[in-house]
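Why predict the complex rather than its parts? Because the way molecules touch one another can change local conformation, and only a joint prediction can capture that. The input here totals 271 residues.
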Amino acid sequence: MTLHATCRDNSDVAVVDFSGRITLGEGSALLRDTIRNLTIIGKKKILLNLADVDYIDSAGIGELVGAYTTVANASGELKLLNLTKRVHDLLQITKLVTVFDVQNEEWTAIHSFK
Amino acid sequence: MAPQNKRIEVTLESVLESVDLAESIVMRVSDAAGFGEDDCHRIGMSIREGVINAYNYGNQKDRKKKIFFTIVFEPEKMVVRILDQGPGFELSAVPDPLAEENLLRTSGRGIFLMRAFMDEFIVKHGPEGGAELIMAKRLPDSRHDNGGSASSPEKES
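Output of the joint prediction:
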């Protein structure tokens, strides 16, 4: 299943709704390009909605970590929203839940940005 | 219960599409063998990571090199072997992705995931070079029979 990304603004936060699989190849490349484009246009508050992403492989995890670092290096914040159980479990066993700010509700997530 | 076909051998090209192909083959075989949805997911992901490893790091995307992918049903477990034609590697040399200093690395989690999702996992040097990843999952029926213990795939091979 191909990955799709839709960007929208909610308040001053760029929300990206992903659907599909974030895996080696087109999926991980789309995530990388999306984050790069948002940082180029100056977005510093980015929320990745992963409600419709039920599969991420190690390349996808790596891309999420890269996205986190890219945004942090631009003095921004990147947060994750609505993880499916499988994705949450994956971030838990890789200890990345200690790195990412994971939110369960968009309104709360939007207001949690500094 | 193990399916009638006890051994499946596939030679894969060193192309990105082989990753999805290997994953879909093993998912179908696992489903037919009676594994539940979660186990099929874990097995599929492990084989995906194994083939990524062979494609990316072993064969370094060299299309002239092959990936040899084998599924064997033993009485109590399904054993999967993934052999590449690269230089091989030592498992002990793979950094721990859970170490604090490695958490923000963008790569290096594939081996960890295979170890986490499969019951057994070892790396050997292939008979003619390359790295051979050997991983196994106990068959659903055998889990009740043997109390969850399983021997190393190396001992069984």
